[in-house]
Amino acid sequence: MTQSAEGTRDEVAEQHPAFPMVRTCPFAPPQEYAKLRETEPVSRATLKVNGKPTWLVTKHEHVKEVLGDARVSSNLKLPGYPHQFHIPEEMLQSVRLMLLSMDPPHHTDQRRMLIPEFTARRVREMRPRIQEIVDERIDAMLASGGPVDLVTALALPVPSLVICELIGVPYEDHNQFEEWSALMMNRDISQEEYGAAVAGLDRYLDQLVTTKENAPGDDLISRFIEKNRAEPVADHTDIVTMARLMLVGGHETSANMIALGVLALLEHPEQLDAVKNDAALLPRAIEELLRFFSISDSGTARVALEDIEVGTTTIRAGEGILALNNAANHDEAVFHDPDTLDIRREARNHLAFGYGIHQCIGQNLARLELEIVYGTLFRRIPGLRLAAPLDELQFKDDAMVYGVYELPVTW
Ligand code: HEM
């Protein structure tokens, strides 16, 4: 069916399913995704946060198509952008766009400056320090005797420390910025709370960037400032905004993936044993866990700049699109038996890091963190087990990035 919804959108808005849809099983995408993929792979939905319409794209091939299309924009100031937060309009129009929300050519210029920080070689050089951080945290876990909450003991501090050291943020401030960051990821907070969290973090980073502008250190922000002096692509506010994206994007995501991955492996003991007995399986297992959870499902939001055809559907210029990577990564046309965790499958063509010009710049770092954490944790604490029933765990259904709030474990 060819459908262009603009004309009829208001009359049928009531019938559109509400987004986000809720997971009924912590280990599977919302059930609606499979139905949509089969019956209406490019479909309308109503955003719970503001009642506005959006397109949902649920097939792997279509998600790739949308994210690779130069006729779509990531600019969150465009009227049709499918927001999932309460952002006051005045604040929206005054915010500085971050890399994630920029279009070319600004996006291309800023991303080019950052690429050298995340090459495979640069990330490999971080291995010894990440290993040290992980070992220290596991030493502390062992010394405490257990049970411990794995999120606060390991999953959050490891990527938080790593990103702090990389970009040059003092880790002693972590309680404060982790709180702001968690609020910014929460879809259920009020406009005031969201605004206050962004403002608090920006004030903090503003001071930090000013300090580095005057006295550069050996860190990503200082190197960016130096390069930018030679070849300007950003002003002071752009650099503050970039630092915020790195800090938030660089720890929330990996932290959630660490905790969920440990939980999934503990719940699939045969697959966990296979990984413990053959470390060569770990990279494959990591790709599968990234696919299986696709924690940043609706983070890939876009607006059509022109009329575009996706499958048999016309999306009109100005309309918002959510290219759902959790739906794409559970597309049976690409992944056999997609709702089953299978660490032996070849899952590398998953879209958990997005696709196209905005594909995750930190993916090499995230993979390395996951490899070191999973590998070290199960080697050093082979008897690790859950210390609470699965059905008592609280999952982040309300957050932009999926995860688990606490993960009690013992050994
Ligand atoms: C498991 C961990 C991670 C996941 C699942 C993840 C997921 C994603 C996704 C889906 C996008 C694309 C968004 C879009 O197309 O609109 C993205 C972009 C981005 N990610 Fe990650 N990410 C992870 C870890 C990291 C880390 C460790 C960093 C550290 C710096 C990072 C920094 C970024 C940045 C800066 C972008 C924007 C890139 C651009 O717009 O060009 N991410 N990430």
What would you note in describing this structure?
The protein has 411 residues and is α+β, with helices and mostly antiparallel strands. The protein has one domain: Cytochrome p450 (Orthogonal Bundle), CATH 1.10.630.10. The chain is 48% helix and 9% strand. The protein is built from 17 helices and 11 strands. A 6-stranded mixed sheet has the order 1-2-3-9-6-4. It is globular and about 55 Å long. Protoporphyrin IX containing FE binds next to α13 and α17.
SSE ordering: HEHEEHEHHHHEHHHHHHHHEEEEHHEE
CATH architecture term: Orthogonal Bundle
Mean pLDDT: 93
Count of folded domains: 1
Q: How many runs of DSSP E, i.e. beta strands?
A: 11
> How are the strands ordered across the major sheet?
1-2-3-9-6-4
Instruction: Decide which structural class fits the backbone.
Output: alpha+beta
Low-confidence stretches: 1-13
Could you give a short account of the major beta sheet?
Answer: 6 strands, mixed
Please name the CATH topology.
Cytochrome p450
Tell me the Rg in angstroms: 21 Å
Small molecules bound in the structure, each named once: protoporphyrin IX containing FE
The rounded distance between the terminal residues' Cα atoms is 55 Å
CATH homologous superfamily title: Cytochrome P450
> Strand fraction band?
5-15%
> If helices are DSSP runs of H or I spanning 4 or more residues, what is the number of helices?
17
Q: What percent of residues adopt helix (DSSP H or I)?
A: 40-55%
Morphology call? globular
